[in-house]
Amino acid sequence: MSNRAQKNEEQPAIRVGFFELFRFATCKDILMMVVGCLCALLHGSAQPLMLLVFGLLTDAFIEYDIELQELSDDRKECVNNTIQLLDIEYEMMMFAFYYAGIGAAVFLLGYLQISLWVTAAAKQIQLIRKLYFSKVMRMEIGWFDCTSVGELNTRMSDDINKINDAIADQVSIFVQRFTTFVCGFCVGFVKGWKLTLVIIAASPLIGVGAGLMALLTGMELQAYAKAGSVADEVLSSIRTVAAFGGEKKEVQRYDRNLVSAQRWGIRKGLIVGFFTGFMWLVIFLCYGLAFWYGSSLVVDTKEYTPGTLLQVFFGVLIAAMNLGQASPCLEAFASGRGAATIIFETIDREPEIDCLSEAGYKLDRVKGDIEFHNVTFHYPSRPEVKILDQLNVVVKSGETTAFVGSSGAGKSTAIQLIQRFYDPKEGMVTLDGHDIRGLNIQWLRSLIGIVEQEPVLFATTIAENIRYGRPGVSDKDIITAAKEANAYNFIMDLPQKFDTLVGEGGGQMSGGQKQRIAIARALVRNPRILLLDMATSALDNESEAVVQAALDKVRMGRTTISIAHRLSTIKNADVIVGFEHGQAVERGKHNELLERKGVYFTLVTLQSQGDKALNEKARQSRSSPLGMTKSTLLQSKCFERLIQQKLQTKEDDELVEPASAARILKYNTPEWPYMLFGSIGAAINGGVNPVYSLLFSQILATFSVQDPVAQRKEINSICLFFVVVGIVSFFTQLLQGYAFSKSGELLTRRLRRLGFQAMLGQEVGWFDDHRNSPGALTTRLATDASQVQGATGSQIGMIVNSLANIGVALIISFYFSWKLTLLILCFLPFIALSSGFQASMLTGFAKQDKEAMEAAGQISGEALNNIRTIAGLGKEKTFVEMYEAQLDAPYQAALKKANVYGACYGFSQCIIFLTNSGSYRFGGYLVQKEGLHFSLVFRVISAIVTSGTALGRASSYTPDYAKAKISAARFFQLLDRVPQISVYNDKGEKWDNFQGNIDFIDCKFTYPSRPDIQVLNGLNVSVKPGQTLAFVGSSGCGKSTSVQLLERFYDPNHGKVLIDGHDTTRVNVSFLRSKIGIVSQEPILFDCSIAENIKYGDNLREISMNEVISAAKKAQLHDFVMALPEKYDTNVGSQGSQLSRGQKQRIAIARAIIRDPKILLLDEATSALDTESEKTVQEALDKARQGRTCIVIAHRLSTIQNSDIIAVMSRGIVIEKGAHDQLMALKGAYYKLVTTGAPIS
After folding, report:
1. What sections of the protein cross the membrane (predicted)?
2. Which of 527, 666, 760, 935 is 20–30 Å from 501 (CA)?
């Protein structure tokens, strides 16, 4: 939803004029568009032209009928026995030719207007795509930081398609419809201005109805926004909800907020029904008025002939209808201009660091001395955070310099400045004394080889990947580079050797293999400067050794900068530079720095301990023969799983079998009475169209009645009947609208509630998957659920409506003339096809375009995702060329589409003319030979033609239906998923005297979203009831993870967690969580009052205000709350934004205390506070800890000293444990930390 909402809020200000959209058109394109416009003008005048023919035709029929009546009148004498009877069949022959002629012209014009415009647009769009992509590839990296890749990809596909919609067929269709509108009114005013004015006077009412309907849709989305924000809040803080067992409570809260959305939906249905009904009512009243007034002009004042009456009436009607149909085109123009604003601005933007520019000089000899002079820098995307602060570093040529420091200290940033991905805000970076801003970028980057932490490979063969390092490199060089990088052997072991495909993003290779290919790619450039950014950190020990050996080989004689966290990789560097807070604070060799006891020293002590312990463990497992194979097995399994996951993520997005309509209806069964009434309304509405043709032909019949009194009476009764039909259709539309919207909205609400409930029931690991991010899930609730109703109510209404329509039409026409009916039925499928085709044409082509763009989209996606790698290798041009090569297929497809689409459009426009041509010719024959009354010819033709168009309209509703079924399928997938850790079921063990005894036994764990990183490596630790256990260690060593295992957000992959001797996987989840209270580093509060936030601690019972206050007192919170104006009813704002951190912490503590937990988990509960509030919170915590088992995670030693057991963790295992004094006596890792007073980070 977040995406959608943003789009609606930030509809880009339209800064592009309509004609500016065509700024990339060549002269040839402009010529095509002009000719296309002329064709559209002529085409637009065809319908009003047809009216002129139609009027003459009516007059001929009526004249013939009057002559017949005079013949059958005995009182008239025959003069000379010669009768001049009108040869109606010959007359109709002429009219049929007129019709057919106009039809043929329309086909040709329709084909030309569409195909010319679509072709011209295709050429322009291809050019825009090329320009846009090549411009984006030239942008500086800082621009990519501020623009997400996803957004760029959507712009490449959707926004350019929007421009396409605005400059293609829509323009010609708009011109055509607008011409029809003008010509229709001209016919009306020229032929009979009085009647035209009368009809125009009533028409604004119709426009008002249409306008108001559009307004309402916006309101409904707003009404859902409240419930949407609840969902978003809950899903973003799912861990807190799970920890405090608030799932059921949240579902109820969400459901309460859905009521308003449901109300709006029903209200909207009612109003839509009301206005549709109202429009029909006005239309029928117009008919009545026009025929009443028109017939008086024909009969009483003899101003018009009956034909003129029809010409005027239909002229105005057609004009009004076409004006209505031209308005969607305006929408397309507006959204095209909006999309063009961003696209064109990007095309016109000049990059700050233009990587393809020829400017800048190239040095003849490069030594490779790099120096930073007082460099200050912050990323353009986060201008408030200073990354580098007056940094001064010298890197001498030919030496290996290592950068060390905690994460966020600015090491990688320094490397990116050397590559000139960014320019420093102050100071400068020099190469051999030259400011790198003056050097040619492509040349500068060609000197540098870089190996990153997560190397990016492109989806081609290994050889090609290495070749990206330097264009035109020979196979021999590739092999040499591979050998230098220790990659040759494993490549030769692969079945296709160097031609092995590495898969998307290198997914088919293991980490070590990817790293070595990346190193080979860096080496093949034969770089002067080698940058290694954590090149081995993601590897396991074995592959690390291999890669490290490769790196040591290649460092010789080059300027090398290496960033690393592992000591083994740094020890043998020539110079080590310690970074802290964006400054270089120390530099020297390994031993010198150890004596200084600074940044470097802290890193070393923590690490060497962890390494020792790990090696111990590895040795133990090696001594058991099974151990080794097991770990290798695990690795290969891990790898398989990775590949499977990669494949799965690809499949999941596409493969959704549309849900069966039966299952959707099953969810809607309680609303059957509404659906029944709605269907009745729909059936009556369907019958209205044919009834109209009955009345219309009846009026024509009255014009040939000779007796004036009878004629007047008939006309009046018919006009009255129009009014009655109008009133009936008003009420049935209202009924249909209300009934179906009610059933649909109830269904949507039910589905949203079930979907939300299912989401909250999933295990926490499910939310780690990026496809289930809070944004994606809220969108699913917002849109999918409301689309599902397209498959039930409105769909049934549509089907019933069109069936009734066709049924009544056929009954009427067969009853009056079966011969003529059979003739027209031959045309019926074509009519239905053509009007259905116009609706589906657009959706169908959009899909084909998408498929044609896929290949180009893959290239652009790969390029944008890996822009840093491409910039580092200087490969922008290659990708732009590849992209342009891929654009040819979509362009050819568009040209093909232009012809197909043009032909179909021409056909769908001319079919009505051809139908009329055939039917009136045969009708004339029947009137003359079989004495059929002429009004019946009109009756049959208009009944079937209107029902045919209705059929087409009904078939055009199917896209909604298909969409609804897919949405429903996605929903059912969610409802059917069985979570691995289920909150809702009551199974599992519970016991009464819960002690709080905790044992972790050999726990191994990896996060499901990152299966390649082992977080816990066999954690063993136990706590007795009432004891306090403190975890210390560097970040990422698995402290918080162990807490999450205890809460059972995850289950360990190996080993077990026991509570009071019960294995947690067998314990009832909600029972277990109800015994644990948690206070985390960033406590998450909900957008409600303080009291409600504290009550959230225990959702199983009602909590009195006294309990809240006593908990608040324990948490040192009470006094501060009482000082607030609204005391406990103060709203904390969304995510507690109205409060300071210390206040939030204390509320969180009160919330944990109120459930009186047996186990208290404090995850860095005071780390974010200043000293004063820390004291208060610390006191509160000490109070809360009494008599409970407690696990504390902390970085500050002061908070840990008085714990019963302190466990020092490193790399997922405990390396030493004991009380504070014992550990101090050991003089191990803990001792070093305490004595140096170094922060444990």
Report:
1. 30-57, 96-120, 171-190, 196-216, 270-292, 672-695, 715-740, 796-816, 822-845
2. 527
